[in-house]
Inverse folding.
């Protein structure tokens, strides 16, 4: 699994059997190649949102931290994004932080 498969191609389904270690490794790849240093396209933000919403809480917060090291517009865009299933990323973040649905 590559970063491009997630961000560019939206192959989120390829991660459906991932455990925390595989997700963590993918987020580490995103950090290593500075995936968020430049502004993401709308399609990349959508793909990232769809991926983010599948992540276990620990990995989601790591991805949020990695995202924050890059272009600030990417953090804002992800926070405002809605997954393809209709779930708001901001609501998922609230749920991760509080344990309660927003």
């Amino acid at each position: 699994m590559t970063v491009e498969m997630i961000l560019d191609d939206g192959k989120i389904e390829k991660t459906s059997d991932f455990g925390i270690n595989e997700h963590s490794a993918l987020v580490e790849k995103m950090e290593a190649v500075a995936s968020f240093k430049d502004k993401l396209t709308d399609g990349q933000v959508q793909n990232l949102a769809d991926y983010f919403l599948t992540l276990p809480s620990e990995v989601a917060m790591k991805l949020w931290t990695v995202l924050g090291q890059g272009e600030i517009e990417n953090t804002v865009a992800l926070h405002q994004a809605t997954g393809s299933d209709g779930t708001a990323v901001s609501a998922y973040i609230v749920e991760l932080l509080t344990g309660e649905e927003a």
